[in-house]
Amino acid sequence: MSGTEKAMQGVADTLREFWAHRPVRPRAGRKLGGVATGIALRYRIDPVIVRIAFVALALSGGVGLPMYLAGWLLLPEEGDQVSPLEALVNKGHSSVSQGQTVLLGVLMFPALAFTFGSGGFQVFATIAASVACIYLLQKNRGHLQPAATIAEPPLTPPVPGAPAWDPLGAAPFAWDLPEPAPKPQPPAPRPRKPRVAGVTLGVATLVVAASAIAGAWVPWFTVAHVIGLAIAVLAAGLLVGSFAGGGRSLIWLLVPLSVVGFGLTAVDFDGRPGVGDLKVTPQNIGEIKERYELGVGSVMIDLRQLPDSGSVKTAVESDLGDMTVHVAKNADVTFHCEASSIGDLDCLGRTADGGNVQVEGVDLGGDGEGGLKIDLDVRANVGEVRVLRD
Predict the structure, then answer these.
(1) Nearest Cα to 297, choosing from 318, 283, 315?
(2) pLDDT for res 2
(3) DSSP code per residue over 213-268
(4) Residues 294, 309: contact at Cβ < 8 Å?
(5) What's the first-to-final CA gap in the chain, in angstroms?
(6) Smallest Cα–Cα separation from 341: which of 262, 273, 225?
(7) What pTM does this model have?
(8) With contact defined as beta carbons under 8 Å apart, do 17 and 140 qualify?
C-alpha cells in the first residue's frame, strides 16, 4: 500500500471513529438544540468557542445553518439510543418526536438552497474546512472522555450464602423461606413489520414540500425535477424494502409517477392556451390569422375556399393532438412541418415519423407555378400533422 493510500485509509478510519463515538447533545446547558454544547463536551473545549464557530460559518455563505441542522438530526440526545433521523427510520428510540424531526428536515432544504445559492467556491471551501476541523478534533482529542461523563459507583459484592432474592444479606432471618415463585413471563411480542412504505412516503412528501419551498429561491426545482426527486425516493424505498421486506405497495405510486415524469421530460410543452377542437374555414385572405394555437385537441384549417390569387402566410401550432391543413389543388404551397417530440408527418406527399422529425418543401400543384401562394408553418409537439390537397 502506497503512502497516499495509507493516508486516505487513516482519514477514513478517523471519520468512522468520529461517527462511532460522536458527540451527544446534552439536555442541560444548551441554548438551542445542544449541538455546540455536545461538541464542546465531547472534545473538552469551551462551548462559547464552538458557538462562535457556528455563527462564523452562518455568516460565511450560510454554511453554519445546514451544518447545525444536520448535527441536530444526526447527533443523539442525552439518554437516547439513536439520533432523531435514525429513529425516524425505526432504528431505535429518540426523545425527539417524529413531527419535530420532519420539521427539522423541512428546514434543511431552504437552508441548503440559501447556502448553495449564495456562492460557489466559497461554500465548498468552507464545507471542506469544516470537515477538516472535525477530522483534526477527532484525531487529536478523540481519545478524551466527554466532560459530562460520570463514572458509575462500584457494585457491592453479594454476601456469601445469601439467596438470590437477598444478595446483600439484609434479611438473614428470612433466608429459610422458600424462593418466591417466578413471575409469569408475558408472551413475546410479535415482530413488527418494517415500515418501509410509510417511511418512504413520508420522506417523499417531505422532499416534495421542501422542494416547493426551495423553488422560491432556486429555479432548478421545476415540476419535472420535483417529480424526479420523488421518484428517486420511492425507488430507494423499494430497494430498501427488497432487503428489509415490505414496500411493495410503493410500486402503485412509482409507476404512474414515472409515466408522468417521462412525459414532462420527453415532451417540451410550451403551455399554449386552449383544450378542444379548432376548425377554421376562411373565405377570403383577410380572415386568415398570422398564427393559430391550441394546447390539446384537434386542429383543422381549410384553405380551399380562398380565391385563386394573392398570397397567404400563417403558422399552426399545437402541444398535443392531430393537425390537418387543406389546400386547393392549384395553390403554390411552401411548407414546413415539424413534430418536436413525437409525431407522424404527411405533408403533400413528404412523410416522416418518430421523435423530433420535420419535412419541408415547395409544391406548385397540378398546374405548375401560378395562382394563390400559401406559406405554411405547421408545428406540433406530439401528434399527427397533415397537409393535404383534396
Answers:
(1) 318
(2) 63
(3) HHTTT-TT--HHHHHHHHHHHHHHHHHHHHHHS--GGGHHHHHHHHHHHHHHHHS-
(4) no
(5) 80
(6) 262
(7) 0.42
(8) no
In the numeric block, the cell 439510543 is attached to 81
Residues 359 and 36: their CA atoms lie apart, in Å, by 66
Q: Which residues contact 364 (CB under 8 A, 6 or more apart)?
A: 332, 333
Q: Which residues lie across from 358 on neighbouring strands?
A: 338
The cell for 126 is 468552507
Out of 30-34, 127-131, 183-187, give the one with best mean pLDDT.
30-34
How many angstroms separate the CA atoms of 60 and 348, rounded?
A: 64
C-alpha cell at 274: 386552449
Phi-psi region of 289 (alpha: psi -120 to 50; beta: other; left: phi over 0): beta
Q: In this predicted model, which residue has the larger pLDDT, 186 or 29?
A: 29
Helix crossing, 35-43 with 121-141: angle to 10°? 40
| 8 Å CB contact between 77 and 66 | no
- For residue 328, which phi and psi values (nearest 5 degrees)? -70, 160
* Amino acid in position 25: R
Question: 26 — alpha (psi -120 to 50), left (phi > 0) or beta?
Answer: beta
Q: How far apart are CA 388 and CA 57, in angstroms?
A: 68
Non-local (6+) Cβ contacts of 206 within 8 A are: 102, 105, 106
Cell numbers that stand for 268 in this block: 417540451
